[in-house]
Amino acid sequence: MKLYHITNNREGAIALSDIPVVEYLDLYNDLKERMSDVRYHIGHYFATEIENGLRFFLILLDDLGSEVLVTSFIPDYYSEGLASLTAVHPQFHPFEREMHELYGIPFDSHPWLKPLRFSHDRRDKNSTMDSYPFYSIEGDELHEVNVGPIHAGIIEPGAFRFICDGEQVLHLEIALGYQHRGVEGEMVRTDNRLRQTLIAESIAGDTAIGHTTAYAEIIEKFSGVEISKELSLERMIALELERIAMHLADTGALATDIGFQLYQVACEALRTVTINSTQAWCGNRFGKSLIRPLGTNHPLTKAKAELIAKNIADVRCRYNELREDILESPTLLARFEQCGLVPKSEMERIGGVGQAARASGLLRDLRFTHPSGYYAEMTHRPIIKQEGDVMSRLATRLDEVIQSAEYVEKLLASFSPSKAMPLPNYNSDLKGEALAFSLVEGWRGEICHAAITNSEGRIVKYKVKDPSVHNWLGLAIAVRSEGISDFPINNKSFNLSYCGHDL
């Protein structure tokens, strides 16, 4: 029996009738073996309500073959539970936890079946943040340290509970889900695509370009329209500008946490130049209004291209000097090296993505493994480090800033304005009874959006996966056996999104 529909990140929407409906036991047995191979990891896994129950969809990524495997199943009973895939492959944990929370599905032998978000439409309304079942360890010499639920720096809600033996962290549990923003529900409640675009821009404010690009690609796939190379090129430039800006911010934040104010001020100055370049392009420093489905309101002009190229060349040159200083600073190296270790094997187990995974030697970079848009026209070289510590996560950023700046400069050097760049189209017909997904390598890592339409071509299900969903567990692993005073630099070295998780 055919288990999967095989496609890739560049193909259009898939008719629901083309997605196999398989027996769960057959799928479980296949995944139990298949997921032991590091070439596979989860793009998305979710359930949606149908007339006679639930239909589950799995989007599985083959990083070696650049293929995407899509399948589904419709179990006819839940009373005895579904065998938990998390029990054999931990990277399934957030997806099974969410489906249990929303639909009450019991996953038999799941080791950690706790609420993921406390969304307003959860099945058990008696399950609240006030009664969250934090893990505990008994011992006369142990104590707990609670941080949150409001982050002192960014004023976003998240609770961190440490179990410590003196200063040493034995366990960290991270509880998110305080905002109940209902992003996915809002994407379905409105048919106004401009409103949907604005919601996509707000999924994670520091990744406005990444998430809006994913949304735009969903609409374009449903519309059956392949956008021009010129528009794809502009989106790539925008994504790389966002990557540069946020890596600069993280470099500065890490410097701040160990008292290197000079490095922090230098990085903030360079970040300002970068985001001001984006503002000169579209009127917003974070790239809001820049990405739109099927077109653009802000085509890149020759004058703007020259300004961006000049600014980024300056940023690259100055940041490279700063990078060399950082790599030669004995105080900084002594603080960051061998701190917050996450081995490659652990990143594989939890399904880690993005620069944090690459810092642990795990090649997870959609620009290389599942390229789309203009990335498919070039050869990207993923930057991989091996040590998996705070220094490796910083060093990955140091090198990616230079690499992204070189990409932007190269693309702009051969840029010539298009005379026929289309305006956005918010009224295109969408393919009915279909599923579309988009995979975008944001600055933090792998973004996956997935949507389903009904027979009238209306979006009736919208699912968002921010890379943070994979990587929060990586942060918890990083601080084990570390001093609790090392938590801030470990936290900054991941820089995960609270709002990107709290959908």
What's the arrangement of secondary structure elements?
Layout: E1 5-7, E2 14-15, E3 21-22, H1 24-34, E4 40-50, E5 53-62, E6 67-73, E7 82-83, H2 93-103, E8 107-108, E9 142-147, E10 159-165, E11 168-175, H3 183-189, H4 193-201, H5 208-223, H6 229-257, H7 261-282, H8 302-327, H9 330-336, H10 344-350, H11 354-358, H12 366-369, H13 390-413, E12 434-441, E13 446-453, E14 459-465, H14 468-478, H15 487-494
Parallel strand pairs: 3-6, 7-8
Antiparallel strand pairs: 1-6, 2-12, 4-5, 5-6, 9-10, 10-11, 12-13, 13-14
Comma- or semicolon-separated keywords:
503 residues, alpha+beta, Beta Polymerase, domain 2, four-stranded antiparallel beta sheet, 15 helices, 14 strands, globular
Care to describe what's here?
This protein is an alpha+beta fold and 503 residues long. It has a domain at 5-119: NADH:ubiquinone oxidoreductase Nqo5 subunit (Beta Polymerase, domain 2, 2-Layer Sandwich). Helix content is 39%, strand content 17%. It is built from 15 helices and 14 strands. The chain has helices spanning 24-34, 93-103, 183-189, 193-201, 208-223, 229-257, 261-282, 302-327, 330-336, 344-350, 354-358, 366-369, 390-413, 468-478, 487-494, and strands spanning 5-7, 14-15, 21-22, 40-50, 53-62, 67-73, 82-83, 107-108, 142-147, 159-165, 168-175, 434-441, 446-453, 459-465. The strands form four sheets. Strands 1, 3, 4, 5 and 6 form a five-stranded mixed beta sheet that branches. A four-stranded antiparallel beta sheet has the order 2-12-13-14. α6 packs antiparallel against α7 (261-282), α8 (302-327) runs antiparallel to α13 and α13 (390-413) runs parallel beside α15. The radius of gyration is 22 Å and the shape is globular. The protein starts with a strand and ends in a 9-residue tail after the last helix. The mean pLDDT is 93.
